[in-house]
Specification:
By secondary structure, the chain is an alpha+beta fold. The chain has 17 helices and 10 strands.
Amino acid sequence: MILNRYERTIAKRYLLPGKGEGFIFLVAAISLGAVALGVAALIIVMSVMNGFRAELFDKIVGLNGHAIVQGYEGRLSDWQRIATQARQVPGVTSALPLVEQPLMASANGRVEGVLVRGMRRQDLLANPTLMNNVKSGDLRLLQPGSGKIALGTRLAEQLGAYPGSEISLISPEGRATPVGTVPRIVSYTVAATFEVGVYDYDNAYVIMPIEDAQNLLMLGDQVGMVEVMVTNPDKIQPQIGALQQIVGDKGRVVDWRNLNAALFEALEVERVAMFVVLSLIILVAVFNILSSLIMLVRAKTRDIAILRTMGASRRSMMKVFVTVGTTIGTLGILLGIVIGAVFLFFRQSVVNVIQLVTGQNLWDPSVRFLSELPSKTDPFEVGAIIVLALLLSFLSTLYPAWKAASTDPVQVLRYE
């Protein structure tokens, strides 16, 4: 919308409070603040929701892969052939053997349920999710036959273990005796602790060389699964079909969606619902813009009539009031972007301060899955929020602008 010089002058004059117009200016300021809070709330919530999905996806997939080939009864004997042929499938970047089994761990008189994972040494050292999150010790000490393992930090806390501690892993697959099967108990030394940031993993995982896991579980040369990574996890179906043909009747293929379907679907539904609900804040804010413009038009009726008698057109009056309302909305949007950016930058500090003031644990990792409040801002979503706020601000100006343009100078100035 292009304004000429006198239209810009009038619009600027109406944006500033005149004599006896303090209340109108207050309503306009409240409208600006409401738009800012609405935009900030949308940006913050959508960024946090995106951060949740991205962090969970990166960390869950970092340990579980985009798809896994599972052997029936937890055993996959022909895994070398499956892994080799899987790597030849277009779109597949890696296929790694794993052993994974729930067991019991004992240390310092404490017993906890654990999830033992056996990995080849080269795969372990190439896994950034583990290598970049070591809290104590050294994962490079995990060598076949060394009797060394790594624990999640929270599991280590539960067992009272630390690098150098001895813990025992208890497997129900033991040796047969005349009185029944005796559980297999093997002692290991803790070489390192890690914290990937997902509570369930940090509270359960025990990492060891795959050869040691095979010996502990008496698997021989068999593994439990083959972890598969692909180039595009959102379009993994072609690879799933090809992998299932390779596996045949020796196992099944499960992708990351099936492994974590409930969690990611819940996040997506909540993300859409929060966007719709918080958009109502902006809608309420633009109603404030509407009311402030209506009051401004009523206060400026005489001025409008005089301008009309001096040659101002109806179109000019509409442009002036549309500009005033849209300017209020635009300033609110800009302020909202600043508020949202500042909050997201200091998000964890804000959570910590609120916890300190209220004395409540607002971020329990056992409930929230992640150790810290995540954030990932999508520029396209921010753009959509800005367009939505601008559109609603513009629409809220049309009725007051039309009323101003419809002012009849004869009726207004009849008794002047």
